[in-house]
Design brief:
Blueprint (H helix, E strand, L loop, with lengths): L2 E5 H10 L1 E5 L2 E4 L1 E6 L9 H8 L4 E4 L3 H14 L5 E6 L3 H15 L4 E7 L33 E4 L6 H12 L7 E7 H4 L2 E5 H4 L2 E4 L7 H13 L3 E5 L1 H5 L3 H11 L3 E3 L14 E4 L6 H9 L2 E5 L5 H4 L10 E6 L2 H4 L5 E4 L2 H11 L10 H17 L19 H10 L5 H11 L5 E4 L4 H8 L8 E3 L8 H13 L5 E6 H6 L3 H8 L4 E6 L4 H9 L26 H8 L2 E5 L2 H11 L6 E6 L24 H14 L6
Parallel strand pairs: 2-11, 4-5, 4-6, 6-7, 7-9, 8-9, 12-13, 12-15, 13-14, 15-16, 16-17, 18-19, 18-20, 20-21, 21-23, 22-23
Antiparallel strand pairs: 1-10, 2-3
Helix pairs in contact: 1-2, 3-4, 3-19, 8-14, 10-14, 11-15, 17-24
């Protein structure tokens, strides 16, 4: 057998260089490159190997281990899982920083390969720098934390173990039903140890993205249930986009007349103004979708995993509502006690459509009427204005609503969040990509955002990870190229939590547009906190006074922060400021940041949804008890499993 002597790290880089994926007959490299922060746990091993062996792989210097992994996740999401980045860090805190991003990847079923350095396999120098010692097991290291957040986990303690570990890793990364984060922990001494690797292990390897076909029996059962329904609703999940079943979904709904709503991951599979489109559904859904969902007698879930935000904690649909689930994952297909069609959406939808020939639902004017009412509400949200008068109330009018007026006076700002979103949505080009993740913006965007082209909405809401937005924008930019723009939408809370990859964007000359919605608070959590009967506690960004953190709002100049990094930045207080900044930003070639001061409590409403949270059963506050009573009233109408 032909062999070549390489270190484990050198063999790994050669292996990464030669992994390809076949999608419907088109073969492309599967690994685009590597994000790296060198440290003592990977710099002399994997770092040396990348310097020597990387020929095709692109290598980027990250600024925060979580941030660069988020960039890799957003890239793979935008590429519809057909290409990935590997991410490597040093041992210890560098590795631990990646755990959050791995959870984000796995919750969203997005492939990412993390390669954390690890403690010495030989144990001779133990305890090494940054090693957590466990008295019950010397084999336990920081990297064991990845087990709970990865689809596949391995530790390569001998150089020859790389072969089985790497193949198992890529089996998982290329499996649409079971993909997510994959961790190969690499003890730093083993990274540099040599082995005679078979040449066959290092040759070009093509992984085929298999489109799992539906069985005839499953399709017939599903078709029978749909034919028996009068008011069906289709929910478009992320699986539609990852399967690239956009055209098949469009043809299916147009042939059958079945209306569709979308999840955060499914949004932008079809443009927003399609005659059968109802918009986002569930807790962050809009009135049109939720109205129709409440009356549906059958739901066809395509590529969705039915999170509590999609089902409104299983309260949105009637008890007698039946479900048909099309999903490549058997686990997901069985949710909601559905008729399972375990299949790729691109295969299943056309075949199911044939079995439904001649079928039409019993809707009359319900769909058009719901759409018309929602468009009226959209027009209102697009034009909300602040008035510093006793009569003016914000959109979210809860027990803490006076924050909006106080903020306006402290910061001399008066923009409403919904108005800014509506304007940016209208001004962006059809093919520009919007990205977001956490806070009140994902809810507002699932309701208000109106995609005019496919795959222009990249929302991470499976894990709702604060700090994903800016790093993710860099990943999206790497995916879409220089001819299209990406706009990151994040609150001041997310910006403060993680924005280091803004420096990477400057360093690499990648123009990303960051829209910071500064309401000096964790706004959606403040809404949740106060709306369930609690007093404000640590959800607003205020100075400390004698009563606690209840003084004036902080007025942070995020534009100057970005300017210091080398970005072009704009301070936005009025719609005129925003329009001028947006037009000027289009001329820029460096990363851009809009520091937009928006009023608290100017998000969208809930539109007939319910979200189960842990309301307090016993309290000194009547407001808490009222919230608990409301909780019980909804819980009794929710499905039990």
């Amino acid at each position: 057998m032909d062999t070549i002597r390489l270190t484990m790290a050198q063999a790994l880089v050669r292996f990464l260089e030669n992994q390809y994926i076949d999608v419907d007959g088109t073969v492309t490299p599967f690994v685009r490159g590597v994000f790296m922060i060198p440290g003592h746990g990977n710099v002399v091993g994997l770092g040396q190997a990348l310097s020597q062996e990387a020929k095709r792989l692109e290598i980027y210097q990250g600024k925060n281990e979580q941030g660069m992994t988020h960039a890799a996740v957003a890239f793979a999401k935008q590429m519809k899982r057909k290409q990935i980045f590997a991410v490597t860090s040093s041992v210890g805190p560098g590795a631990a920083n990646m755990v959050t991003a791995c959870a984000c990847a796995t919750a969203n079923n997005i492939p990412v390969l993390v390669l954390p350095g690890d403690t010495y396999a030989c144990r001779q120098p133990d305890p090494v720098l940054q090693q957590v010692e466990h008295t019950n097991s010397l084999a336990t290291t920081t990297n064991d934390a990845f087990k709970a957040v990865c689809r596949y986990w391995d530790r390569v303690v001998r150089p020859e173990q790389l072969m089985s570990a790497a193949i198992s890793a890529f089996r998982t990364l290329t499996d649409p039903a079971n993909t997510g984060a994959v961790c190969l922990a690499m003890p730093q001494d083993v990274e540099g140890e040599a082995y005679d690797y078979p040449v066959s292990f290092l040759k070009k390897r093509v992984w085929r993205l298999e489109r799992r076909p539906a069985t005839e029996a499953a399709l017939k059962e599903a078709a029978g249930a749909i034919r028996a329904s009068k008011k069906p609703l289709l929910i478009c999940g992320g699986g539609v986009r990852y399967a690239e079943a956009h055209a098949e979904l469009r043809h299916f709904v147009e042939a059958t007349g079945i209306p569709f709503a979308d999840t955060q991951a499914g949004k932008s599979a079809i443009e927003w103004d399609h005659p059968l489109a109802l918009g986002g559904v569930g807790v962050t859904g809009c009135a049109a979708a939720n109205e129709i969902a409440k009356e549906a007698d059958l739901v066809i879930g395509v590529g969705t995993r039915y999170t509590d935000f999609t089902t409104a904690s299983k309260w949105l649909f009637k008890d007698e509502c039946q479900f048909v689930n099309i999903n490549v994952s058997e686990f997901q297909s069985l949710k909601m006690e559905a008729i399972p069609v375990v299949a790729d959406a691109k295969d299943a939808l056309p075949r199911l459509e044939k079995l439904l020939e001649g079928y039409r639902p019993a809707y009359t004017n319900e769909i058009k009427d719901a759409q018309a009412r929602w468009r009226e509400e959209l027009a209102r949200l697009d034009t909300m204005t602040f008035q510093d008068t006793p009569e003016w109330t914000p959109i979210i009018n809860d027990a803490n609503a006076d924050s909006a007026k106080r903020y306006a006076r402290d910061l001399k700002a008066g923009l409403c969040q919904t108005t800014v979103l509506g304007a940016l949505n209208a001004w962006m080009a059809d093919t520009d990509v919007a990205i977001g993740a956490a806070g009140s913006l994902p809810g507002d965007m699932q309701r208000m955002w109106r995609p005019r082209a496919q795959d222009t909405y990249n929302m991470e809401y499976g894990y709702s990870t604060m700090g994903y937005e800016i790093a993710g924008a860099l990943g999206v930019k790497l995916a879409i190229g220089e001819d299209r723009e990406v706009y990151a939408f994040c609150g001041d809370g997310s910006f403060n939590m993680l924005h280091g990859e803004l420096v990477t964007a400057v360093q690499e000359g990648k123009k990303i547009n960051v829209c910071v919605f500064d309401n000096a608070s964790f706004g959606c959590i403040n809404n949740l906190q106060v709306g369930h009967g609690n007093v404000t506690l640590l959800t607003e960004l205020r100075y400390r006074n004698q009563e606690g953190l209840f003084g004036n709002f902080l007025n942070i100049d995020y534009a100057k922060v970005a300017e210091g990094y080398g970005c072009k930045s704009y301070s936005v207080r009025t719609m005129e400021d925003l329009k001028a900044a947006f037009e000027d930003a289009k001329k820029q070639t460096v990363p851009v940041l809009f520091d937009i001061k928006v009023l608290p409590k100017t998000m969208t409403d809930g539109y007939g949804s319910w979200w189960r949270v842990g309301d307090t059963e016993v309290s000194e506050r009547q407001e808490n008890l009222d919230a608990y009573a409301d909780h019980l009233a909804h819980e009794k109408d929710a499905r039990k499993y």
